[in-house]
Amino acid sequence: MKKKQHDLLKYLLSQSKPITSTEIANALSISTRSVKNYVSDINSLYNTKLILSSRNGYELNRQASSLLTLDNSESIPQTGEERAFFIIKELILYHTSHLDLFELCENLCISYSTVKAVISKMNKAFSTYGVEFLCENDCLYIKGEEKNKRKLISYVLSEESKNCFITLQQLKQCFPDLDIDQLHNIVVSSFKAHNFYLNDFATANLLLHIVIIIDRKLNGNPLDSSAFTFSIKTEQENALLQQLIAELDSLFGISLNSYERYEIYMLIKANANYSIVDSKAELKSLVGNEVISLTEYYIRQINTLYLIDLSDESFVTPFSLHLKNLLFRLRNGQNIANPLTKSIKLNSPVVFDMAIYITLDIMERYHFYVSEDETAFLAMHIGAEIERQTINRSKIPTVLLCPEYRNLGVDLLNKLLLNFGNQINIVSSVHSEEALQSLDISSFGLLFTTVPLYHTYDCDTIQISPFNLSQQYSVIQETIVNSQNRYKNHKLKTNFHAFFEKDLFVANTNMTSKNQILTYLCDLLQVKRYTDAGFEEKVYKRENASTTAFGHIAIPHSTDMDAIKTSIAVAVSKKGFQWDNNTVHLVFLLAINKADKKTFRELYESLISLFSNDSILQEARSCTTFEEFETLVYSNINQE
């Protein structure tokens, strides 16, 4: 939200009666036209009548305004990164066609020259995202394809949402009277005992909902079962549910009714890496058409307004259950306290803004007041899903093809994830090759199949038996490692020109010592304004702590990821550089910008893997031009 919009809301909040546009304009030193525009923008941003207008003037919708964070000290970005994120959100999230540079100076409380410096650094820092920030006629625009803008805003939101992920410590703060550690042990051991895979994010989501069910039960607010009955799909599911229920009843001295048991059963199905397609009908029977429709509507709106896709079943099912229970609490005048509310508002403003959008819609639909604490719980769901997506992007996207027979596919999926879940992300499980062909083949890099295939696919493929999986672990692990290497090398090829430049390449120089070549490469980066004046000192600080030489390769870097633009300065020497007790022939000086940390980690590993090959290293020693070096890299990647 812009500073003037913030000031307008704060001013209206201090008034007890409608205020005319002229009075507001005089108070804020703006035009009456700006007042009308700001009111329209604010109401559009929150998709509700946050500011009411009448013949008497403007006034705040008091019920909705209680959700807003209006402490100005929290709204003005202070660091270069915060200012960059502010600009990106204004241009992409809030769909602003352009920003007036002078108004931007006022909103950020910085000078014109500082704004221009921030924009210059942004163009370097976010160049790998395929966008450009252009200044024309004292206005700022963003240029780039929609898919690249979405990648950029996804990075910004994932950075801001980190404090929304639900941890054990946060649950302990929210529910200090419950033994969260013991509950966590019960959940994890129960799932493991029945051979179900449960990752950290699923564990957190499951714990959150079970804790809320137990807390409401202990405080005399059970869910109404009204002779509710349900059936369980498999014996394995039933055994897990019965053990979990028995241990919960024993630990907390409660007796969960049939409706509460069914809700926990649905949470198991949502979080134990099931293909939830078969469970949609069950979810609808549990939460009702109204909640399903609301959930789908909010997912569409969040995607439209904030460019974040929340449609994965790992979010849909827990969120639908939470939404149903939230409506139940509202109708009964109940509320759950959340001691993390202030922290989430402060540290994850955009995620909290998404939750506010949902809250305002609920208030307008049902005419119930929704507290900030309840809003923060919605934000925790959204933040956890964004974090889950961020982590999963570092794993190999994988598909499992296994004909469905006596729950064979589900068992195999869980066994694969129990043993290889930290390396692969199973994005889909299908039962036939026809179903496989309906998928976007380019969206996954590894395919497990239990049956012969009639077609070939542009991904690594391994045929496995659904039985005696433990005897196939070594073959599976080898396939995963090879697939990871190909994936990393693909990243090296596609990002080569984003990080390597002709002006940052030097071959067969007269320099022979580590200090000579390091200082020279640091100077190259600073001349191009990819690093600041303190970069060289940080490089030496890291080097003095422990050598960065690996055999005949050295990969020095700063102790911080604070480069203005991610880049690699390269030095090649046939004679070699004296590097402590080694002779190094190839030096890669890394300058890393935080925005590229994930891609750069993959690139770093690819460089070590590629140039650890003696024959490739010998060829690299003979390179005299950047073009020869580029050809060497490309040709050897293509051979992988």
Q: What would a concise description of this structure say?
A:
This protein has 28 helices and 14 strands. With 640 residues, the protein is α/β, with parallel strands linked by helices. The protein folds into five domains: 3-65, Winged helix-like DNA-binding domain superfamily/Winged helix DNA-binding domain (Arc Repressor Mutant, subunit A), CATH 1.10.10.10; 76-160, Arc Repressor Mutant, subunit A (Orthogonal Bundle); 168-392, no CATH class; 396-474, Rossmann fold, CATH 3.40.50; 495-639, Mannitol-specific EII, Chain A (3-Layer(aba) Sandwich), CATH 3.40.930.10.
Describe the structure.
By secondary structure, the chain is an alpha/beta fold. It has 5 domains: about 5-65, Winged helix-like DNA-binding domain superfamily/Winged helix DNA-binding domain (Arc Repressor Mutant, subunit A), CATH 1.10.10.10; about 75-160, Arc Repressor Mutant, subunit A; about 170-390, no CATH class; about 395-475, Rossmann fold, CATH 3.40.50; about 495-640, Mannitol-specific EII, Chain A (3-Layer(aba) Sandwich). Helix content is about 55%, strand content about 15%. The chain contains 28 helices and 14 strands. A 5-stranded mixed sheet has the order 10-13-14-12-11. Strands 7-6-8-9 form a 4-stranded parallel sheet. β11 (about 550) and β12 form a beta hairpin. α18 crosses α19 (about 370-390). The model is unreliable at about 70-75 and about 275-280 (pLDDT under 50).
